[in-house]
Amino acid sequence: MTNASPAECTLAHIRGAHARIKDKIHRTPVMTSETLDQTSGGKLFFKCENLQKIGAFKARGATNAVFSLSDDEARRGVVTHSSGNHAAALARAARLRGIPAYIVMPNNSPQAKQASVKRQGGKIEFCEPTIQAREAAATRLFAETGAAFVHPYDNVNVIAGQGTATLELLEDVPTLDIILCPVGGGGLISGTAIAAKGLKPSIDVVGVEPVGADDAFQSFHSGQLQGVAHPNTIADGLRGKLSERTFAIIRQNVDDIVTVSEQSIVQAMRSIWEILKIIVEPSGAVAYAALVEGKIDIRGGNVGLILTGGNLDLDELPWTKV
Amino acid sequence: MTNASPAECTLAHIRGAHARIKDKIHRTPVMTSETLDQTSGGKLFFKCENLQKIGAFKARGATNAVFSLSDDEARRGVVTHSSGNHAAALARAARLRGIPAYIVMPNNSPQAKQASVKRQGGKIEFCEPTIQAREAAATRLFAETGAAFVHPYDNVNVIAGQGTATLELLEDVPTLDIILCPVGGGGLISGTAIAAKGLKPSIDVVGVEPVGADDAFQSFHSGQLQGVAHPNTIADGLRGKLSERTFAIIRQNVDDIVTVSEQSIVQAMRSIWEILKIIVEPSGAVAYAALVEGKIDIRGGNVGLILTGGNLDLDELPWTKV
Fold first, then answer.
1. B314 in contact with A at a CB cutoff of 8 Å?
2. pLDDT tens digits for A213-237?
3. A244 touches chain B (CB under 8 A)
4. Which residue from B82, B39, B36 is spatially nearest to B59, judged by alpha carbons?
5. Is B54 left (phi over 0), alpha (psi -120 to 50) or beta?
6. Residue B2 above 60 pLDDT?
7. Is residue A40 annotated as a catalytic residue, yes or no?
8. What's the CATH code, domain A11-57+157-307?
9. CATH class of B11-58+156-307
10. What's the distance, Cα to Cα, between the start and end of chain B in Å?
């Protein structure tokens, strides 16, 4: 195998990932808004990964993982479990490489995310919406097909791919003082923090998590990896829990983790829709929710925010539900 | 007066407008989508004026008009009537120049558009939702304040400003074969057609209009300027009627005008939200609606579409109404 996974993710791996994937993904725009700057008291730079291929940053990690496989590893396809965006991203990357993608999805995944996987040619297998059921189904498919397992976040090549968003962001806006990033399983914030600290050690990297799925917040502040038995948040992309690997990276590279309420997430999402005129899903609005809620003192600084994705059912918007 | 209006709009005026306004507006992105290309059978390039300042292309024309005034003309402010986007654009341009803006708005304008005018510091005067009432109120304000009247479309400097979107689009995508543009009062398509034909005479410029407000379609095909007594369309930005000036420009520079149904407009709008992940208002989706409806044979060509704006009430989406 010429493409063996590195044991640990570094800035060099993230640069390698960017070279590998940059012609297969969008270089997403960085948006600004005088109105949101006035509201927040800082200068905000939104990295619009909702405008990424398949509508989420997950295109980066999945594409890097699939194209890091040797021909021999790739031959029988790839398999994963995912609430949605990683699934569509892996299906797309597999299609680009001409190999099959087997996708385990919780049976309560949003319709828009299921449709996106199908559009990319992924083969969906539904399971109960628990982490145990997801992992069991993926393990079985792995055994049946011999496909390479690409974990949605506990994978060095995936983490390196996710970090490429921050490479681009800091290239476009080198004056950033702080980067705010949602935390689910920790893949994005791991890549974000490694890229940011590698390029600019003085920068602050702060994770933001829904209070109803605050395993990373609890783990970070207690120093012990902890889980939340029944994550409960509208931010469906952030219900996963940290792995040993992502927890270790976060402890080493992240400055703080804060939580936000469901109300702040919906308010942040609506402000982004109304003012920036772009669609973010609830998970994608979580970083900005920390500013809506006043959880972070940005002291007039230059703030990068990763808008992670824009896939949701337009018939079920949080402000039109009865 | 050193800034007298030109009698006629030319490519040179549009270039002058761009030089005048380019540091006061966004250079909006041009978005593409493999999914929408596959559906339409061409290569589509969406000029995202919904991501423009105040969420609409109207920022271009209003800014050019306000900054084309001499100091003496500008001193007592500006006045206009508008269903919304031109209003917010004029209020913003006046704020940038430090002069008052008096805005006549129909009393059924969307809340989001009213809020946008207020955010920009415009002074709103409401009127009945007819063109006659709008013009009467604006004339009265003009008499009372001495403010300079900036018509939303029947104004050479406004038309030149609107044309700057196409300058940028053709600079980014010189290979375009056709440009599709919504038609309301005709200011945007006038600037679009003058810019497009001036830069690339072989390009086709096609106007698209809601069937319930098809005065431009009827006028274009009959050769006589015609009105629609009671325009009825969800595309609230396209209810205006052509002026003698915009009709003359259209006759000279536009290749065709087609109409689209309300259903196609809503379907186009939803596809843009779902696939491009950006917010367009109904008027903004009208150009793409012509492709949804199969009204234009694009023969696999490179198609530019102007997405005109993204301001609408998020509580009243056409697919969540009872």
1. yes
2. 999 999 999 999 999 988 999 998 8
3. no
4. B82
5. left
6. no
7. no
8. 3.40.50.1100
9. alpha beta
10. 55
Identity of the amino acid at A160: A
pTM of the model: 0.92
DSSP state of B273: I
* Higher pLDDT pick, A72 / B82: A72
B159: three-class secondary structure by DSSP? helix
* Structure confidence by residue, pLDDT tens digits, A84-120: 799 999 999 999 999 999 999 988 887 877 888 998 9
Architecture of domain A59-154: 3-Layer(aba) Sandwich (3.40)
* Catalytic residue from among A40, A68, A82, A83: A83
Beta-carbon contacts of residue B300 (< 8 Å; ≥ 6 apart): B41, B42, B43
Could you confirm whether A58 is annotated as catalytic? Answer: yes
- CA distance linking residue A96 with residue A98, whole number of Å: 6
Q: Which residues of A touch B50 (CB under 8 A)?
A: 277
What's the CATH architecture for B59-149? 3-Layer(aba) Sandwich (3.40)
Report d(CA B178, CA B202) in Å as an integer.
Answer: 9
Q: Which of A47, A58, A197, A241 is catalytic?
A: A58
Enumerate the domain spans of chain B: 11-58+156-307, 59-149
Domains A11-57+157-307 and A59-154 agree in fold? yes
